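User:
Can I borrow your eye for a moment on a structure tokenisation matter? Would you put together a sequence-and-structure record for a protein of your own picking? Please set it down just below, with no commentary around it:
AI:
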Amino acid sequence: MNIGDRLEAIGKLVLVGCVLADIGTDHAYLPVWLLEQGKITSAIAGDIAEGPCLAAKNTVSMHGMKGKVEVRLGSGLKVLQADEAECIAIAGMGASTMIEILMADMSLAVVAKRLVLQPMAGAASLRKWLCQNGWCIVAEDLVADGRHLYEIIAAERGESPSFSEAEYEIGPKLIADKHPLLTRQFARQIGSYKKLLSNMGKSQQARESTKYLAWEKLVQELEALADACNCK
């Protein structure tokens, strides 16, 4: 099965030999592919909608994984029982939705050995929330797809170091590992905030707002960090 670079990168951060919970599974491509690779022992594929669950069941059946992947209809982690999944993957949704899912069932989230998260937007807020709520970022990856960069975060329970706002924006492990796409990550984040500032700068009132001043400071911090990382 060919699942594409994004899902493969997510799969690489899943723990070897684990029981995986793939939340928001859609077609269940990730758990089926990981089983074909022999990386996981079994999986629970959960989705909130009936359509994706039917698609997931079809994928599972087509690839002969009926005894290995259980498809469950339900919201977020509510498809799980206590201590049922050692690794939880959530991909393809916004960071705020991921945080809501984790907060809604913290007792289930905290017992997993690892979270593997791929937010479509808001990765900085997700990193910050994880670090402030008892998780430590243990690995990160970037995957390029045309003009888009997908950010993937692996987190485990533990005390987190203190990071700056700029480090949350870029990704502390991406910085530490000198990821090959780090320069592109800096350019994207700095460019995005500069565009926001440019639009806001057309209004005197906006230029004096707390948000404008905070973003202006963040751009300065990002540029300084990019210089320190030789990424300009």
The chain has a mean pLDDT of 95. The longest strand covers residues 135-145.
